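Notebook B, p. 112. Complex prediction, attempt 2.
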Amino acid sequence: MTSRASILPAEAREAFRAGLVEPTSGWSRGYAQANVLSIPREHAFDLLLFAQRNPKPCPILGILEPGQTTGPLLAGGDIRTDVPKYTVYRDGEKVDEPTDITGYWQDDLVTFLIGCSFTFESALQDGGVRIAHIDQGVNVPMYRTNRPCAPAGAMAGPMVVSMRPVPASQVADAVRITSRYPAVHGAPVHVGNPEELGIADLGRPDFGDAVEIAAGQIPVFWACGVTPQAAVMQSRPPLAIGHAPGHMLITDARDSDYLVP
Amino acid sequence: MTSRASILPAEAREAFRAGLVEPTSGWSRGYAQANVLSIPREHAFDLLLFAQRNPKPCPILGILEPGQTTGPLLAGGDIRTDVPKYTVYRDGEKVDEPTDITGYWQDDLVTFLIGCSFTFESALQDGGVRIAHIDQGVNVPMYRTNRPCAPAGAMAGPMVVSMRPVPASQVADAVRITSRYPAVHGAPVHVGNPEELGIADLGRPDFGDAVEIAAGQIPVFWACGVTPQAAVMQSRPPLAIGHAPGHMLITDARDSDYLVP
């Protein structure tokens, strides 16, 4: 197998379909990765409305209509097999972490493909901003905040944020660079003061791993695609299937497709 | 009554609620007007998905959830009475043009409030670009094009555009000014060649009125909020209620709320 960074999306999906299971960070550099969330059509209006009202944490890259298993973002692929690992929820409770969801599939499932901040990390690196969690070899730290999202029907919950420590001299660069990617969370929602977001201890993230924050670095917070999963679970749909954390769908869209001038 | 341009939105809605019937062009200058479309929840997912896939013709300003009759865009108002005139469709056919829809209301109706290009006309005028249909005292001309929208479930149809003739020396200004209002259709979708859009005769619009095009003026086309109404009618929902053409909802949002840098 060639280096993970240079594998094309269709080849990556084929490898996962054939049974490979590993996190997708660093795979297929230059191509957008997506959060995946499949729920019954009966609940899909509320989720789409939640996303419309909360575009920063819930940027929609694409939607597969009821029963559809493929689409232009995964040409020739199958959403039931092409994600390395899934999480299955019944009535809001996790019941399984399979590598294939063919056995759980229902013809009324609508699949949301939601932007992921991994997409702007390459641009940050290209701009000279180092990514602590990549350097430290861990998952990005994520935190529930005290900021409620705008509710929609049965969907409600707090905004979840990801955090990257940035040297004070580069905070403006990090804001400027990520602002140009509004479809993948865009500019930070907060800079510098975790207490104001209701985060008591940066060393204890709610999801992902803690990272070391060096002297002179400022914690910078971006809206996170975990937000809609948390809101959906709160509404306890009979069935919901998401990707397992860090195991994203690798799409055919290029990171640059989401760049604005 | 004070001049229509200086009436506040809540006062305008109260006048319409009390029975006044007239087009809203020129009312409450500086406040955004909205296309209105109420359909049963069962059809609302498809329409919201259609809007998500076609943001230029279908910019969502707000959505009232099933049965809701008021919201932040019409504080203290009632969507069943505060639009000057409505159009009621059964199975896609027009059946009534009432000034109050209380008798048609159902608790499963979801109401879409969709951006209207009237919002950027003030900005064009402030930028020195005259609006032909205002100068000529007629409704804006609108045309079905040969450009299909991205379909969503049962919703499909061509993009509908509005046309404003602009002096060649001001086309760049018109593009620049309207680009800054992406939530109300934004930049033009086409400049200069109606044949390419499948429009055979500018003198015979599909909706609204024809305008005179002076020598040296270029026809400029913007995506139009009539597009989703046409797509909804094609799907023939059992009930759909829209505003009557030119008789919009006057919202509490300011035009400037939709301005981007």
